[in-house]
């Protein structure tokens, strides 16, 4: 029971650090950006008395919050990882080891990225079963993900989010929960927290399911890199799908879904066939037994010492000769390069 509460408290603590950091950084960005707007409306004197003015002000504040969401994700992610690194450093523990960042089989890179891409398309297929009102709410809540500068979008969603979220939810929350409870229960709780962190209820559902997949990948590879790659592929597909025009024909969507199903099946099959939790091992070659030393008389030892000294001198002489020849060759090459350079300069 003691291990249960210790693991639970650690997991909740790590999640709280991540969540509070996100809220604080987002609020700071929003306040800094919204302050000039608030001053402009306050100077008008009708911010409180006129409902239309207040509504326009709130719309502008919401727009500012949406515009600063992605930069806030980048900054909060960097601060969160830096704070965790500092916490483990103060405890004299290696951050990389504690969160499970280990080498993984490089052959797994391709199937993991392909699985992430295809899983995202299959998730989009499931949205067809969702009522339109719920979809409108989801689209409004997640619209900031693809808004703004494309470089910022890629850094925040494709790079920063997979790294930070895998460190927090699989590297810290799941592994600490697992120390005090069955792995299945720990996976469910960690995935539920992962979904809760995304806010909107439809987002919560599919990210919780995706969180279970990420736990499974982590357990098979014992490396956080695997989950980062899968997560990277999933978020990358969101960005790529967002670039499609709104008038994309239906047949293209059907083709994408068919391709996603095939790629997902192949990726899972490929990934499952790889060895679990370790790199491919090198073949072990049995060492040959060493020969037993032969007895040598004093006269033979003296003769061998004399011959070995002669051989060492000859080796030294040959090495000196080789070095001299190498130096001469290098000097010759340098001279030739200088002559070529002079000729080129004269022609210019």
Low-confidence stretches: 279-288, 298-302, 340-348
Please tally the helical runs, counting DSSP H or I stretches of 4 or more residues. 12
- On the 0-100 scale, what is the average pLDDT? 79
What is the helix fraction of residues, given as a range?
over 70%
Q: Biggest β-sheet, characterized?
A: none
SSE class: mainly alpha
Number of domains: 1
Give the H and E element order. Answer: HHHHHHHHHHHH
The Rg value, from CA coordinates, equals 32 Å
Taken from the alpha-carbon principal axes, the silhouette is globular
Distance between the termini: 83 Å
Strand content: under 5%
What is the tally of beta strands?
A: 0
Task: Report on this structure.
With 348 residues, this protein is an all-alpha fold. It has one domain (2-273). It has twelve helices and no strands. The chain has helices at 2-44, 51-67, 69-90, 95-99, 109-126, 132-142, 150-178, 183-196, 201-221, 224-242, 250-273, 298-347. Helix 1 runs antiparallel to helix 3, helix 3 packs parallel to helix 7 and helix 7 crosses helix 9. Residues 279-288, 298-302 and 340-348 have low confidence and may be disordered.
Outline the secondary-structure elements:
Blueprint: H1 2-44, H2 51-67, H3 69-90, H4 95-99, H5 109-126, H6 132-142, H7 150-178, H8 183-196, H9 201-221, H10 224-242, H11 250-273, H12 298-347
Helix pairs in contact: 1-2, 1-3, 1-7, 3-7, 5-10, 5-11, 7-8, 7-9, 7-10, 8-9, 9-10
């Amino acid at each position: 029971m003691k291990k249960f509460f210790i693991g639970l408290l650690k997991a909740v603590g790590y999640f709280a650090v991540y969540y509070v950091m996100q809220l604080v950084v987002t609020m700071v960005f929003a306040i800094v950006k919204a302050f000039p707007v608030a001053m402009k409306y306050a100077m008008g004197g009708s911010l409180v008395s006129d409902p239309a003015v207040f509504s326009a002000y709130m719309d502008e504040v919401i727009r500012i919050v949406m515009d600063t969401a992605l930069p806030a994700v980048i900054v909060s992610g960097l601060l969160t990882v830096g704070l965790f690194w500092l916490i483990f450093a103060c405890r004299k523990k290696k951050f990389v080891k504690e969160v499970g960042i280990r080498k993984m089989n490089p052959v797994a890179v391709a199937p993991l990225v392909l699985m992430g891409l295809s899983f995202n398309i299959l998730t989009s297929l499931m949205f067809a079963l969702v009522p339109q009102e719920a979809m409108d709410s989801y689209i409004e809540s997640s619209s900031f993900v693809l808004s703004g500068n494309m470089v910022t979008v890629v850094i925040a969603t494709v790079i920063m989010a997979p790294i930070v979220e895998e460190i927090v939810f699989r590297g810290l929350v799941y592994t600490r929960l697992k120390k005090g409870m069955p792995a299945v229960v720990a996976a469910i709780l960690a995935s539920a927290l992962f979904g809760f962190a995304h806010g909107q209820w439809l987002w919560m559902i599919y990210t919780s399911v995706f969180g279970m997949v990420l736990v499974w990948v982590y357990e098979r590879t014992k490396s956080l890199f695997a989950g980062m790659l899968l997560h990277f592929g999933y978020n990358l597909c969101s960005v790529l799908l967002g670039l499609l025009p709104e008038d994309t024909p239906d047949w293209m969507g059907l083709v994408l879904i068919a391709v996603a199903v095939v790629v997902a099946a192949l990726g899972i099959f490929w990934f499952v066939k790889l060895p679990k939790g370790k790199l491919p091992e090198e073949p072990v070659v049995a060492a040959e037994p060493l020969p037993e030393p032969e007895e040598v008389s004093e006269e033979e030892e003296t003769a061998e010492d004399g011959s070995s000294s002669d051989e060492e001198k000859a080796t030294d002489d040959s090495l000196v000769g080789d070095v001299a020849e190498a130096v001469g060759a290098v000097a010759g090459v340098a001279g030739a390069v200088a002559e070529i350079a002079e000729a080129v300069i004269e022609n210019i």
